[in-house]
Structures are given as structure tokens and as C-alpha cells.
Design goal:
The complex is a heterodimer of chains A (about 170) and B (about 190).
Chain A: H1 3-25, H2 31-48, H3 58-73, H4 97-115, H5 119-129, H6 134-141, H7 145-165
Chain B: H1 9-16, H2 25-63, H3 67-89, H4 99-140, H5 147-189
Helix pairs in contact in B: 2-3, 2-5, 3-4, 4-5
The chains are: A mainly alpha (about 170), B mainly alpha (about 190).
Chain lengths: ~170, ~190
């Protein structure tokens, strides 16, 4: 591996490993399977990196590859979602262990809820939760911004209902 | 989770974005190397099988009296090599376009592969039929058949049968992949 390759991989991991893991965990409830899928997504992004020509925003490019990877390699993605506990994450350096435990519990719960959304809504909700704008979501998924707005609103309502059902 | 937080999407996004992935550079490098190794093994096996097929076909031409069967087997082997090389050259969609477009490209690629495999299967069954006919003719006149002729026919039949079996396994994989892609595309586009 050249030093350029290594630097690229370091940057991809630094900037997108968390994103890839959250996407994977939204489809795979088994922690090991989610970890494997995260690695597959990151390898796919690394391989596709030289082809990036600023045709869209960098994170949109990464999101497209990640979603495509999920679509082609997770045959369980479209089946009924399972609800199993997720694995431990590495704590973020900016939080105390108590804060991490609290946030981790909340995040685990949120990921489990997102996993129960139908795929069409889940795809939109995932990207909106990652702070993508509706235009970026539309650009990533290939649907209209109108459809993003409708699905986004519906996904928010579904999530809110689920959160209120399960305090 | 605090029910009040549900009212604020920003709060949810903040919670969502906490933590990082349990993945290291070494993990990614290991997976990348494993994938490359697997691809190398598949290519080596394919090339070995094709070389054996061509060798058996040429042997058949030189050994049995029915030259056209030998020539047919050579044609089958060469066509198989051509199909494999053509399929390798056709690149898999990278997924750098939007998701729906990438899924559409991927479906088109799977359909193209299925078509190539169909042609290969037809050719395979024709060649297998011819070789089996020759084998049965030789067995009917076993007194006049040479031992090397029988052996060559048996090897050619085995090589062709193995290629047809491999073709069918690939076709099954392509069919499953196509079905999966169609379901995912439908799920993504049909919103009730």
C-alpha cells in the first residue's frame, strides 16, 4: 500500500467510519454483521475514491456508495427488521464515561427504532439524521425533493410515535 | 429516552451522531486483501478449467475418428473462454451515481450476465449432446474403439458437464441477485 493510499484510508476512516457504522447498524441488528457491513462499505468507498471528481458533495458521494453497497449486499435489508441489542462502541473522546453511557443508550434505542421503519422512509430518515439537506438526500437516493419532504415528514411522525410508545 | 426530545429533530440528530465505529485501518486492509485473494483464486480456477477444457478438446480431435465432434468441443471451449473474458471486461456499476440509477445499472448488468449465461448453456448442452452421442456410438462398437479414444471422450464429456454445472450455479446466483435488487428497488420506490 502506498503512502497516498494509506492517507486516503486514514481520512475515510476518520470522516466516514461513524457514518458507515450507523448506516450498517440501521440494517443489521447483529453487532458482528453490522461491523462486517461497515468494513465492506468502507472498502467500497476506498476503492471508489480515485473516481471522485467533485461531481457532487463528498459526503453525497460516500452516501451513494454506502447505500448501493447496502442494497446489493444485505439481502436481509428488505425483510422484517429484527430487534437485537447492538454492540459496544468506542467512546468519543469529548464525553465523560457517564455522558457516553447515557448517549450510547439513547443512540442504541434510536437505531433500533430507525431499523423498524420501512426501507423507503428509513433511507430518508437516516440521511436527515446525518444532517443532509433534502436536496442532498434527493441527490443521493435519486428521488425528487418533494418525495424527500413527504417521506421525511412521515418518517419523523413514525419515529415520534415509536418514541412515545416506548419511553 | 426523554419524550420531550422527540419534538426536536436536532436533538435526535445529535444523539444519532454520537460515538464512532469499531473499525480500524488494519481491519479494512485485512478485508481488502481477503477480497483480492478470493478474486485471484476464482480467476486461477477459471483459467485452469478453461485450459483443461481446451486440452481435452484438442486431444479429442487428435484421438477419435469423428473429427467434427472434436472440432465442436474445441469451439465450445473457445466460446466459453470468450464469454468469461467478455463478462470480466464488462465492469460492475460502481454505485457512484444516485442509488436508484445505480440499482438500475446493476439490474441491467445482471440481465446482460444472465443472457450471456443462457447462450453458454445452449452451447454447452449441444456440445454435451454431441459428445454423449459419440460415447454411445463408441460403446456400441466397443471392439473397434480405442482405449485412448474412450478416455478422451469421457474427459471431454466431464469438462463440458462441469462447465454447464458452473454455468447453472452462476445463473442461480445472478437470478437471486436480480430478484434482490428488484425487491429493494420496488421497496424504495413504492411508498404506500
Amino acid at each position: 500500500m502506498t503512502s497516498t493510499d494509506r492517507a486516503t484510508l486514514d481520512r475515510i476512516l476518520r470522516d466516514y467510519a461513524g457514518f458507515a457504522h450507523r448506516l450498517a447498524a440501521s440494517y443489521e441488528s447483529d453487532p458482528e454483521a453490522a461491523r462486517d457491513l461497515t468494513q465492506e462499505i468502507l472498502v467500497a468507498v476506498w476503492r471508489a475514491w480515485p473516481a471522485y471528481r467533485h461531481q457532487c458533495a463528498e459526503r453525497t458521494y460516500v452516501a451513494r456508495i454506502a447505500h448501493y453497497r447496502i442494497a446489493t449486499h444485505v439481502d436481509r435489508a428488505v425483510r422484517e427488521p429484527r430487534r437485537a441489542p447492538l454492540g459496544d462502541d468506542i467512546p468519543s473522546g469529548s464525553m465523560t464515561p457517564e455522558e457516553h453511557a447515557m448517549r450510547h443508550g439513547q443512540r442504541e434505542h434510536l437505531i433500533a427504532l430507525v431499523r423498524t421503519l420501512p426501507v423507503a422512509y428509513r433511507e430518508v430518515a437516516l440521511l436527515l439524521l446525518e444532517d443532509f439537506t433534502p436536496a442532498e438526500v434527493a441527490e443521493t437516493l435519486g428521488i425528487s425533493t418533494n418525495a424527500v419532504a413527504i417521506r421525511g415528514t412521515r418518517a419523523r411522525e413514525m419515529l415520534r410515535a415509536l418514541l412515545e410508545q416506548r419511553p | 429516552m426523554n419524550p420531550h426530545a422527540t419534538e426536536h429533530w436536532q436533538d435526535l440528530a445529535r444523539v444519532w451522531q454520537t460515538g464512532s465505529a469499531p473499525v480500524t485501518v488494519a481491519d479494512i486492509e485485512k478485508l481488502h486483501e481477503r477480497q483480492r485473494h478470493r478474486l485471484r483464486v476464482v480467476r486461477a480456477v477459471e483459467l485452469t478449467c478453461m485450459a483443461l477444457g481446451i486440452f481435452a478438446a484438442l486431444w479429442l480431435v487428435l484421438t477419435i475418428r469423428l473429427r467434427w465432434v472434436g472440432i465442436l468441443t474445441v469451439a465450445f471451449s473457445v466460446a466459453s473462454v470468450f464469454f468469461v473474458l467478455r463478462a470480466r471486461r464488462e465492469s460492475v456499476p460502481p454505485g457512484s451515481t444516485d442509488l436508484l440509477e445505480a440499482l438500475k445499472d446493476s439490474l441491467a448488468y445482471q440481465e446482460w450476465l444472465a443472457e450471456q449465461l443462457r447462450y453458454g448453456r445452449v452451447l454447452g448442452f449441444v456440445a454435451l449432446f454431441a459428445v454423449v452421442m459419440v460415447a454411445s456410438t463408441q460403446l456400441m462398437h466397443v471392439a473397434s474403439a480405442t482405449r485412448s479414444g474412450l478416455l478422451a471422450t469421457a474427459i471431454a464429456a466431464l469438462a463440458i458437464a462441469a462447465t454447464v454445472a458452473w454455468n447453472m450455479a452462476l445463473a442461480w446466483r445472478v437470478w437471486r441477485c436480480t430478484a434482490r435488487l428488484k425487491v429493494f428497488t420496488k421497496t424504495l420506490t413504492d411508498v404506500s
